[in-house]
Specification:
CATH topology of the largest domain: Aspartate Aminotransferase, domain 2
Bound molecules: pyridoxal-5'-phosphate
Radius of gyration: 20 Å
Number of strands: 8
CATH superfamily of the largest domain: Type I PLP-dependent aspartate aminotransferase-like (Major domain)
CATH class of the largest domain: Alpha Beta
Strand content: 15-25%
Distance between the termini: 48 Å
Length: 249
Amino acid sequence: MNSNTRLVAMGMASNAIGTVNDIMWARAITYKYNAWLLLDAVHYAPHFAIDVKASGCDFLLCSAYKFYGPHVGLLYTKPGLLDRLPTDRLRTTNQMAPYSIETGTLNHAAIAGVTASVEFISQQGKGNSLREKIISAYSNIGKHENKLAQRLYHGLKEIPGLSIIGQPFGKFERSPTISFTLKNKTAEEVCTHLATKNICAWDGHFYAIRVMEVLGLLEGGGVTRMGISIYNTEKEIDIAIKEVKSLSK
Ligand SMILES: Cc1ncc(COP(=O)(O)O)c(C=O)c1O
């Protein structure tokens, strides 16, 4: 970074290997260079509460379909900031944000679905206001997901020839997303077998091409990824471990 840096865009959590990035560290550096900070919270939002003010970010993006909602993209900007950004070749009737970037008829049904997904999340917690409920809900969601993710992590770790990619649990804040490689099996072979047992896992790079490249995992089919959500159970985790183990023999 230097004084020419205008914008830093970074992920809050990796959808490929579960890492949660240190936003406050990034924020401190961007302040130093007077650059904007844009956070991709697509993978973070289903698992952790977000406080845009506390993060100090200028922009934050997430997708409702990752937190039990429909396909709607969400953009937060610091108050007033969007009005300072000219749109490219787009002359809307109302030049003020958000109308300057929201043209035509909005997808009202989907937007109602976003409200419903936020309400659904808030119902997982307690509190007097919607905000309190959401924060409490994420605390409950986090406890449940983390417990299952640790069970999966430790169960998989014992399997001969299996390597988990990414940081361990306990030491770092981490999303409940576990990726691994298995000796003598491609990730596609692992996922194809799991699918026959009704276990949904995905193989490849998950569009996180750079991290896979840096880790030397891009060639050879990438990794197998298992993600935990609020609806998963301990029983499911144990079945998943057993099925992956059956492939290691
Ligand atoms: C971290 C991250 N950023 C961005 C995206 C893309 O989001 P969308 O599907 O809403 O374009 C994804 C989707 O998996 C993601 O995990």
